[in-house]
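Q: Structure for this?
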Amino acid sequence: MFNVNRVMTRGALAAAVALPVTLCAGFALAQENGQPVPGGLGLPNMVTPVGLGTQQLYNMVLMPIISFIALFVLGLLIYVAYRFNEHANPIPSKLTHNTPLEIIWTLIPVLILLFISVPSLRLLAEQVEVPEASVTIKVTGNQWYWSYKYPEDQGGGFGFDQMLKPESELQPGELRLLTVDNEAVVPINEVIAVHITSNDVIHAFGVPSFGVRMDAIPGRLNQTWFKIDREGVYYGQCYFICGKDHAYMPIVIRAVTREKYNEWLAQAKQKFAGADQRVRVASESR
Amino acid sequence: MASSTMAGAHDHPRGLRRFLFSTNHKDIGTLYIILGSIGGVIGFLLSLAMRLELAYPGVQIFPGLAELLHGADPSMALDAGKNLYNVFITVHGVLMIFFMAMPILIGGFGNWFVPIMIGAPDMAFPRLNNISFWLLVSSLVLAVISMFVEGAPGMKGFGGGWTFYPPLSSNTGSPGPAMDFVILALHLAGASSILGAINFITTIFNMRAPGMTLHKMPLFVWSILVTAFLLLLVLPVLAGCVTMLLTDRNFGTMFYDPAGGGDPLLFQHLLWFFGHPEVYIVILPGFGIISQIVSTFSRKPVFGYLGMAYAMVCIGVLGSIVWAHHMYTVGMSLNAQRYFTLATMVIAVPTGIKIFSWIATMWGGSLSFRAPMVWAIGFIFVFTMGGITGVVLANASADKQFHEGYYVVAHFHYTLSLGAVFALYAGFYYWFPKMSGYMYSETLAKANFWLLFIGVNVVFFPQHFLGLGGMPRRYIDYPDAYALWNLVSSFGMIFVTLSLVVWFYAIIEAFMKKRLAGANPWGAGATTLEWTLSSPPPFHQFEVLPRITGAGR
């Protein structure tokens, strides 16, 4: 009996040492350039206000609090196992009530939750309330690719499909399961509103570096937004199970300056003008 | 029941008749535990295949499995393999919830010990008990058949996740009959649970021994009572929800089809109105078991008995009004998201009361680290780990970074695959001597614990990192950057597999060695009524009802 107790204590101590080390490493390692980092421990490098808010909420508020609670409970368990095992404490006490204690362990969690809810609800409002946007794009989920439409009155008037590049066609440096044929391009430092729907089953549009995840549901038009603060290529994937190729419909968004964006718009208008868009939306909602 | 007080008036059937037609709560409980073990082992094998597949990037084993299981043509094997992976994740979820956790915790331990703990001779409706069990068996058969009939065009089985969201589960995504089999399986499982819940509520309200007031009932009985109420309230909603899907699929209705004025979100609201209470249905009996065990092996009554009982009631009520926190990304209004965030976070309060009360029960006690206690302490730790990531995910704002990703997978496996399963093992090792009459090997039981504890932590802790990095769930293949933590996660399955082998061996060893357990192997701390009976208890117990005078716990 005593042996087991010792083993348990030792294992728990090892965990207690390892946990904060692993968790803190999450802050140091960040993603570069909008793609997942090999062996990464923490959130990606955020490039939008909402993403940065999410990073702050998680790294500064939520994670320290939950790590502390986990270690506190673990510490209590270890102490109790050590102090009150039958060898150390052969005669059990009869303590079954302590009203002040019970009030404390009800009130303190309430206070902690209130403390969390303030920044959390502020961020929520920022996510949900879409600001005045200078660029609007419409994204439609299909089995199993994404379609993009750029509205005419913002210099667009074209649409294209974004398909996974098969493994056999990948160039050196391109990412397996993430590289696509047609990247969607948006300008930096401008509010981009994204309207999201689906043609068949439910999909979800998600880009981790933006802090954005929104379901694409047939018959509904969802809206989200981002404002990217630096140039780069940002990768996302489908976040709702949609059939056999759920893992094979990535999202790639390239953020460029306004000038380069205008150039791209002009080129894209040519490139996609004659293309078969294969978009089957019955009525456009611009 | 009129003759139930007359000793010797009972039939005592043997062999097949005893088990096939059983109306005895202990035999039915045993059947439930066996059924749950079968469901759990199949569910585990499915997860083993999934973790093997995910150990390395790329698609390795599922095309072969599809050829083997479905006779897929080699030229189609890759697509069939991708579909089969989705079928596996779906059936894994359904089996583990409906055919492992619920049968063992509620049908098994509930049937065995609720009547004994309240001093009753049997359940209130013994024949209803029998049909509850056999409905569940029929349901399992339908669920397994669904894996082998057409779902998506040209594919076998339904692969849309255990939440069955249309349009993937309607004719758009799965025109074949696989989904109809799943729906009918859910109907039968639901009917089984509703009948079981009626039986438990009636038993607990009407058949308590003299002196056994509600506030003296053991906490395990309280947990089953709250669970039964939840089942009774939410399962009809699930039944309605999937029936509308059935009529959408077969009779041309449009409840969930936007083309006819329906809405896929209606399904999600109805499903989660059942689905969220369902997770508490799975974990509440676990809370009850842990309370009994912690008290027994601390040789102290439970700290704050009333607080513990009403915390469970409170969790049941709150758990029923927070369903849409599974739907933060569907485009709900800001105010709805605010409400569901706050309401969900509030659940942390009664849950915290339970965790602290268990620790306070141990505080000042005289702890003996027998196998059930080691499992119970393991439960408290892993459930806390699952609970705190639940606080993170309760925030609609933070959830948008984690939704449908591996952080969520890690979270609910810490609460269920670790929490509920540890409670289940704790209960199993606590009551095995009572149920079988034999003592198992303490060493094997603890080896089982350490292998599973190490195993599940190695499997699921790295999944937090995958989720933070953005890896979506339900993916057969992933970008190479996620390779490291997936490999570590899969590596943990070695320990989990070994722990199951040890568990089987522990049972076989106990039945071979036949060490008699005696009425009460746990000593002075075990004060509930089951320990006053012989091990195993007589076929009919309490022919003279016990009279309860002491304080409750």
